[in-house]
Amino acid sequence: MEPETLQVEQRILESVGMLTIEGVVDLTTMRPVREAIRELLEAGARHLVLDLRAVPYIDSSGLSVIMTAKRGVVDRGGEIWVVVKPGSTERAFHLTQLNLLVGVAETPEAVLEHLNISSTPAE
Fold first, then answer.
1. Domains present along the chain, CATH in parentheses
2. I want to staple 61 with a disulfide (CB 3.0 to 4.6 A). Which of 13, 27, 34, 86 is the partner?
């Protein structure tokens, strides 16, 4: 059986670290997500937005990475948001009640608007 591949893109807009994740997030693939979150926090991100719309499945180890990240942003006075679409990933947040601990949104732009951050970098 071929191992799952995971793509993680990261960027910072003002004080917001943004991750776009594509693929299954589980015990065998979570390391790049954890490392990207650490890098964003070390680069000074106060808030985190994890775009999981292209994640068809996340297991408890992936959810654990998000909870660890929450502690990192709370220490900075920030917030963590996940962007999900209806499906098993969204269900995982509701079944574990993680949706009560992190913000859940339909688009990254909605989160940026909530945080009063422009989605286009100033020139």
1. 7-114 (3.30.750.24)
2. 27
